[in-house]
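Input sequence (232 aa), recorded before submission:
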Amino acid sequence: MPSRLQQYCFFSFTVLLTLGLPVEAFAHGVDENTRTFLQQNTGIQIIPFLYIGAKHMVTGYDHLLFLVGVLFFLYRSRDVLLYVSMFTLGHSLTLLFGVISDIQVNAYLIDAIIGLSVIYKGFDNLGGFTQLLGKSPNAKLAVLIFGLFHGFGLATKLQEFQLPEEGLIVNLIAFNVGVELGQFTALVFILLAINFWRKHPSFTQFATSTNGLLMSAGFMLMGYQLTGYFMS
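Predicted structure, token format:
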């Protein structure tokens, strides 16, 4: 009889194959007002870039799914701070470095790797690596590495708008600070929800299925981004 882990892996692939959502639904969308502002922006615009950064993180479901997986089994505040700091360091470095150095990376491939990060965390929470390899990868290093890719995901989106050189560094820093503010806001709600759920017996009962669904979401994200890459 297949193990529970195998059942949820199969379920993840089934969800991926049966959901008929368009590829665009899994892209890093930018609303029309934001798009217009970024295309017409000139000079230093600290407040707008703060707002755009915060909004992008709060509505960035792929980033939030990864953070849910990272925080799911963290019980101590010190651990939460450490892992969030590793993620923040990773995506801040590549966000700033990617745009300033004009490093061109295919957005579909980066977003596919971000989807893979969600799969990794759900699989790790299910004990998959321990079952297959006898031990789990270094969780802190993995969060840092995937944070680098999440930052490139943000950088590739900004690069699409060919931001002017005037005020670029200040605007990028403002955008990154906005991302951190958005992340902090999202983390507050995520931690409140998880901590509230932990007080109920259903947390242990549904922990496996929740992380199975997390993997499913990761498979969908990765699958649709790879489809977009091969069709583009």
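Checked by second reader. The chain has one domain: 66-231.
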